[in-house]
């Protein structure tokens, strides 16, 4: 297992992001190895989602570089990164409205995974089954509730045939039972060799899947390493949850 | 009356064809093209150029003008529209307004200000009609235009529903950033939409030149008709464009018949204004929580004003009595 984990698949180096005078990321260094599951925690406004935007190509960094499978992809756009195998979900699901659930997935399979004809349809069906929303296939996305939208968001990312999956608070709002299902699915994806980077506030869910934990605060990485080490780090306790972390442990 | 209704209905086919491109570009790229009418006139002049200068048959000239219009759409989207759109909402309006002026004066520079028409080149079709009853006849060209609009809109609907490009267009219209994250090149989709829109607009311009006379400065009026059809039918709605076109056509036709021929355009504008007002107040009513609350809020200042007026009146009466 360690040999698999030793190859970085995606690396962000010295990433700065500022909007005018407001700096969101300060020289962030981040990497994830092939087949690894990395958790990102941090208080609201820590820059976690902005980092996802930079990695996925939706947000251009003000400085720094993003290397994916040994290639500098800093200047490539989100569509190119999706073709290369980077997929992300949003904290607030963003389904394609005016389309059915299946059409959403077919669009992702055709454009993201580059499949056509029957192959694209089969892949879309596979993604439907993985996210357990096969029964919603022909429902318009506008008729879905929040939980089903979250499942669709995950299924659509999976339909692009990703190698690196960026999950942004996918567990928020789920019941314990649904959370267990989600953890089982993400563990399965990890076992299949997918690299998973997961931003999550629900720590007990995160800890069941991840190999490594990164904590961000005020646009900086303040600690990273083995989850238990990071959570015992005094800076993390101060910045994130304080004594709550001890209870989780 | 029935004659007016049918003529208006058929005219709606032309308006739908004219408005489809405008609606598509707004629906997908959120781009308002103020040069839309001038581009339709450009399409008409391309066909006139093919017929007058190159000696082509009108139908072949129409066929050949469509790829030229497609190229115009691709180039405009690639080098002008995309760049202006990145700078906010106002710049596309100013730039396409300027583009319209350039097109008008460019056509004037090349073709002069004389009115031109394709009617002389299409034989009987420009004026021939089917006699339905003694009092009712329908022109062959308007029927052909209407049928063409139905075929074109159906084709567009099928494309949007069942093809990869269609789904990519719908996905981009819904959320361009999410579309990009799912592997769709939204710029390429916008270019494809501009190509489709310009082909439709060029076709509409050609049909206009077959049924009427055109000059290089006719674009703005066509833009207004297209806008009215789009707004009446619902912005970004494909079949709504046909409904909007028909409502506009019937309004104009009825206005001309029931009031006077000078009211042809004005009636259309008034119906457009009425629809816009109902939509506007409908939105406000929705925001304010219902008609009754809105009425109370609107009546509020008046009630206060009238109560103040009555207080003043009472005070005046009291002063008069005291004297």
From TrEMBL, chain A:
Keyword terms, alphabetized: ATP-binding, Nucleotide-binding, Transport
Pfam family, one: BCA_ABC_TP_C
Coiled-coil residues: none
Family matches, as SMART domains: AAA (SM00382)
InterPro entries: AAA+_ATPase (IPR003593), ABC_AA/LPS_Transport (IPR051120), ABC_transporter-like_ATP-bd (IPR003439), BCA_ABC_TP_C (IPR032823), P-loop_NTPase (IPR027417)
Taxonomic lineage: Bacteria, Pseudomonadati, Pseudomonadota, Gammaproteobacteria, Oceanospirillales
Protein name, per record: ABC transporter ATP-binding protein
PANTHER family: AMINO ACID ABC TRANSPORTER ATP-BINDING PROTEIN, CONSERVED COMPONENT OF ABC TRANSPORTER FOR NATURAL AMINO ACIDS-RELATED
Organism the protein comes from: Marinomonas arctica
SUPFAM superfamilies membership: P-loop containing nucleoside triphosphate hydrolases (SSF52540)
Domain of life: Bacteria
Domain ABC transporter: 10-243
GO cellular component, one term: plasma membrane
GO process terms (BP): D-alanine transmembrane transport; L-alanine transport; L-isoleucine import across plasma membrane; L-valine import across plasma membrane
Gene Ontology molecular function: any one: ATP hydrolysis activity
Keyword Magnesium annotated: no
UniProtKB/TrEMBL annotation, chain B:
Cellular component aspect of the GO annotation: plasma membrane
InterPro entries, per the entry: ABC_transp_permease, BCAA_transport_permease
A Gene Ontology BP annotation from the UniProt entry: amino acid transport
Broad class of where this protein is predominantly found: membrane
Transmembrane segments: 6-24, 31-51, 57-76, 88-111, 141-160, 192-212, 224-251
Subcellular location: Cell inner membrane
Topology class, membrane: Multi-pass membrane protein
UniProt cross-references to Pfam families, sorted A to Z: BPD_transp_2 (PF02653)
Any coiled-coil regions, as ranges: none
GO molecular function: transmembrane transporter activity
Alphabetical keyword list: Amino-acid transport, Cell membrane, Membrane, Transmembrane, Transmembrane helix, Transport
Family: Belongs to the binding-protein-dependent transport system permease family. LivHM subfamily.
Listed name of the protein: Branched-chain amino acid ABC transporter permease
Organism (species): Marinomonas arctica
């Amino acid at each position: 297992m360690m040999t698999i984990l030793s190859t970085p698949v995606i690396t962000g180096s010295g990433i700065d992001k500022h909007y005018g005078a407001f700096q969101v990321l300060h020289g962030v260094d981040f990497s994830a190895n092939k087949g690894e599951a990395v958790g990102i925690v941090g208080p609201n406004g820590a820059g976690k989602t902005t980092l996802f935007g930079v990695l996925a190509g939706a947000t251009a960094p003000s400085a720094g570089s993003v290397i994916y499978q040994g290639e500098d992809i800093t200047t490539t756009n989100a569509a190119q990164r999706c073709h290369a195998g980077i997929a992300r979900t949003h904290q607030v699901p963003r389904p394609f409205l005016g389309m059915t659930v299946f059409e959403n997935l077919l669009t992702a399979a055709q454009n993201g995974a580059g499949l056509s004809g029957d192959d694209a349809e089969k892949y879309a069906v596979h993604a439907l089954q993985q996210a357990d929303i096969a029964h919603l296939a022909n429902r318009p996305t506008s008729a879905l509730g929040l939980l089903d939208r979250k499942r669709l968001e995950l299924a659509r990312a999976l339909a692009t045939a990703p190698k690196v999956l960026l999950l942004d608070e996918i567990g928020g709002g789920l019941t314990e039972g649904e959370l267990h299902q989600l953890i089982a699915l993400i563990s399965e994806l990890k076992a299949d060799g997918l690299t998973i980077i997961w931003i999550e506030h629900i720590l007990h869910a995160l800890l069941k899947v991840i190999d490594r934990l990164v904590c961000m605060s005020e646009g900086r990485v303040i600690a990273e390493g083995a989850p238990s080490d990071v959570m015992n780090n005094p800076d993390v306790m101060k910045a994130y949850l304080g004594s709550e972390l001890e209870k989780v442990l | 009356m029935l004659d007016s209704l049918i003529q208006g209905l058929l005219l709606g086919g032309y308006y739908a064809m004219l408005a489809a491109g405008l609606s598509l570009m707004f629906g997908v790229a959120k781009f308002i093209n103020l040069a839309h009418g001038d581009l339709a006139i450009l399409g008409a002049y391309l066909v006139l150029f093919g017929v007058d200068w190159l000696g082509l048959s009108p139908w072949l000239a129409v066929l050949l003008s469509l790829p030229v219009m497609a190229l115009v759409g691709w180039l405009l989207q690639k080098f002008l529209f995309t760049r202006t759109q990145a700078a906010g909402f106002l710049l596309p309006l100013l730039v396409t307004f300027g583009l319209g002026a350039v097109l008008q004066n460019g056509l004037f520079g090349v073709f002069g200000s004389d009115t031109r028409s394709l009617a002389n080149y299409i034989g009987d079709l420009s004026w021939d009609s089917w006699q339905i009853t003694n009092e009712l006849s329908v022109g062959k060209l308007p029927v052909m235009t209407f049928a063409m609009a139905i075929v074109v809109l159906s084709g567009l609907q099928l494309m949007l529903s069942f093809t990869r490009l269609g789904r990519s267009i719908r996905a981009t219209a819904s959320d361009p950033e999410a579309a990009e994250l799912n592997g769709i090149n939204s710029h390429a989709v916008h270019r494809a939409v501009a190509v489709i829109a310009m082909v439709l607009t060029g076709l509409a311009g050609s049909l206009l030149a077959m049924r009427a006379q055109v000059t290089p400065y006719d674009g703005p009026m066509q833009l207004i008709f297209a806008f009215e059809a789009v707004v009446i039918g619902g912005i970004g709605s494909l079949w709504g464009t046909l409904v909007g076109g028909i409502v506009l056509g019937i309004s104009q036709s009825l206005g001309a018949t029931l009031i006077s021929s000078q009211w042809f355009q004005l009636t259309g504008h008034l119906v457009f204004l009425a629809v816009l007002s109902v939509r506007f107040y409908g939105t406000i009513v929705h925001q304010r929580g219902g008609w009754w609350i809105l009425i109370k809020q609107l009546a509020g200042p008046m009630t206060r004003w009238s109560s103040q007026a009555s207080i003043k009146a009472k005070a005046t009466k009291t002063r008069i009595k005291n004297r």
